Structure formats: C-alpha cells, structure tokens
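Worked example 2:
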Amino acid sequence: MPVGLFRVCLLVITAIVNHPLFFPKENGTVPENMEEIIQKMKEREESLRLEQLRLEREIADQEATQKALEKAAVVVEESKEEKVRWDMWTALSLVIFLLIELWRQDFQEGNWQDIGGEEDDMAVLGKAFKGVAFPDKAVLASFYEKRILGTTGDMARMREMVEGFADDLLEALRSVCNRDADMEVEDCMGVGSMYENWRVRKPFVCDLIVPFAPPEPYCFRCQTWCSGDSFPPDEQGYGTIKVCRADEDATGCICDKTKLGEDMLCLLHSQVSSTRPSSEMEDLLCFKNTQYLDADQVMKWFQIAVTKAWNRISHKYEFDLSFSLLDSPGALKIKFKSGKSIAFNLTPVVQYENSDVYFISHFPRSSLAADIPSSTHWFLTFAVYERRFIQLVSKTLPANACHVSCLQILSFLHGKQCSLTGPSGLTNYHLKTVLLHLLQARPSQDWAPEKLEARLQDMLKFLEKCLHEKKLYHFFIGNGRVPAELGFPIIFQRAEPLNLFRPFVLRRDIYRKTVDTFHEMLRNMSALINEYTVHIPLAHTNGIRKEPL
C-alpha cells in the first residue's frame, strides 16, 4: 500500500513538472538563434577592434604631438640659453672695451706728451712740445722778477684809488635815484685778475660788480638752466630774472594764466593788483609786455644814473669821467689833465638767492663766445667764489708758492702772442680755469717756488689736451669736490658739467685759429721771454740742463 501510494505521488509530480503551462520549452529555440547571436558577437568584436585601433592611433598621435612640443620646448630653452650666453659675452665684451677705453684715457692723461702719430696741426697730443726748448729756472726767475713782479705795487695803488672813487660815485647815485621807484644799489665788490693779483698786461682794468634790487614791494625771482626746466645747449650758463611782488606766489595765481571773464573776480587778488600796466613793468626795467628783467633796459638805466651821479660830484675831482665802451653799461674811463687815464668796469648784477653767485648784465665778450639768446637771459658769474677758492688754497700752499706766477707768465705769453698774430678763442678766464683744475688735482707741496718750471709745463700740457679734446669744463659747475668751506650752492655742484670749449665744436675757423696761435706761442716762448729777461751769466746756467718738453 505504501508503495502504491508512493508511485501514485511520483506520477503526479512527474505530470506536473512536464506540464507545458508551468515550464515552457524555452530551450527549444536555442538551436535556431545561436548562429544569429554568434554573428552579432563577431560584429561587436570587429567594432571593438576598430575602436581600439582608432584609440591607439589617437594615442599615438597625441604622443607624437607631445614629443614634438617637448622637442620644441627644448629647442626654445636651448636658444634662450644660447641667447643668454651671447648676451653675457656681448656685455662682457662691452665692459672690457669700456675698461680698455678708460685705461687708455688715463694712460693718455699721464703719458699723452709721449704719443706720436701722423702730421696734424691739431690732433696729436704733445706733438707741439717736441723740439720746443723750454726756458730754464734761472731764465724764468729773471723774467718774472723783471717783467711781472714790479707791477704788483702799481695794481695795489690803482685798486685803492678806483675803489674809493667807485664808492663815492655809487653814494651819489643813490642820492639822485627815487627810493620809491628806482632800483636800490648796494656796495660794489672787486673781482677778476686785479683782485686775484695775477693781472700782468697793461692797461690795468679793475672789475667791480654792483648788486641791485627792485623797490618795494617787488622782488627778483631767479631761474637758472639747472633749476629743473629744460634749457637748450646754447642757453646753459644763463638764467632769467622775473620781477614779482613780494607777496605773490612763486608759481603764480591761475588768474594770471586764465581769462576769468568780465563777470568773474579772483578772490585772492583784487582787480587793481591783478592788472599790471605795461608802463609799470617797463619802469621796473622789464622786457616789453613781460615780467622778465631786460639787460638792455638795465644798461640804459645804469648809464643814465651814473651820468647823473657824476654830474653831482664832478666838482670835487680834477679829472673827467666818460663811458669808454658804448655797448658795456659800466665801462668807465678816468682822464687826468696830464693825459693819463685809468679804466675800470662798474657792472650791475643781480644776486642769485642768498649766495655769492650773480647774474651779470653784460659779460666781457670774446670771439669764442656765442651770441646771447636774448636780452632777458643773464649770464651767471662765479667770480666771487673763484677768488675765495684761490685765497683758501693759498693758505695751504708753501711760502711764495708758484701758482700765481704760473698764471701770470702764461697770461703774458698768450697776450703777447695775440698782439702779434691777432686774437684767438682763448681768454684769460680759460687760463685761470686751467689753474683752478690743477690746484685741486695736485698736492700742496707741488706748488713750491722751485717747481715753477714743472707747473708751467703742466698748465701748457693740460691746455693742449683740452684744445685737442675741445673740452674745458667750468671749475665750479658740476664739480662735487668744491670745498665745503666756500658755501657753494649745491644746485650747481649737481648740475651737468659746463664745457667752456663747446663753441669750438661749432666754429671750426675759430678753433683752428686758436690752436695755431697756441702752437705759435709755444714756438716763440723762448724769444718772448728772453726779450724781457736780463742777461744771465753763462756760469750761472752751466749747472742747469735745458731740455725740450
């Protein structure tokens, strides 16, 4: 029974399992779809293979591009390094060249008299000295004692006489001037070769400068070429002087620069003070329709004032006074009844701020000097500081130092040569500038009296070097080594150096004439000195060797 029941149950289960409603014959379609599935799988595999190939090509292209970029970067870097190396070599070569050039110039400064070359009247340094027999110490001493030393007493007497008369004349000038309208004249000061004791050639001429100032409430505001504004090269060394009210702003109010209109008023300036009639400014010696002081107007005013002053005091003196040069405001000449005469210059100047630098209305002109840009441009003179510098240095030099003697001898030789062959571009001021440079460059012991011959040679060689280079710099302008004891304005020490020989670059004819005169002076030096030298016994000179430079 149980076995039969078991069989019946097994049969039922088998029937249920094999019933088509419960388990459909899914596997019956497998044999039909297998090929289609395999075909799709092959197609998929092929597409994946193609995609792989495409990706590999893209990766390869990217790698090639990356390599190209890296290679280009390497090339650029190498080129930069090469350029840097080239720039370094270029800079190094330039530095070496500059060092060689500086060494060459230094070498020339110490040994330029030994350099030879082709025949050229102007280009060979030291060539003019070859074959020139320089006077020995005994001849120079005799020449100085006979021709120059005796003039010192004459200069002292003349200075005393001229200064006394000038003081009296200026006092009379103040009395004839209107104190409320005319310029205020101060005491005069002596400058130049007569007051530095190196004037040698007659006629002796005293140079006196007379500072003047405007009447109240006006004042002078000075502007120089080195004060910040750009000045052309031909105006270097000059400045302008503006006449302003003392209470006026230095920069000026906008009402002076802008038309405000009829219905507008400046709150700072009234209508009366803001309008300056042209006649008022002309009374203040300004250029027409400007506020700038006119040197020509100053010249006319000063000549008229001096004439009035002389008319007031002429009865006190037994001589006549007249203007010796029409184009110079204060070139005066005293004529005695005996026929003798004394010339002196009384020149009006304007003080620069609180210093002893002065704007001078008229400066002694030479063939080398360029024309003045305009009558509102005033030349600056440093004559007071030059005199002080010589006095300061003289205190440190040995007794009876030869610095003044050198300048006197050189000035005499040049003046004598110019009287024979005509004027040149060189002036006594250039010769004094050479001495000032050498006084600063050489130690004090080098100016002992027994070294007169050597120092005179130094001055001539330095002057020839400057002529060759067409460069002789002003001693004070751009010189940062000016002694602090002088109280020299710092603005001029910081300025660009001023080349006194700049006109030689522009005027070739004057340059050639100047160099020819200088070389002719060297050749005639012995003859010029021997002409004024007493005979020196041969026994006195046997021990002195006479060598060319």
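The beta strands are 184-185, 189-191, 205-213, 218-224, 238-245, 319-323, 331-336, 341-351, 358-360, 378-381. The first strand starts at residue 184 and ends at 185.
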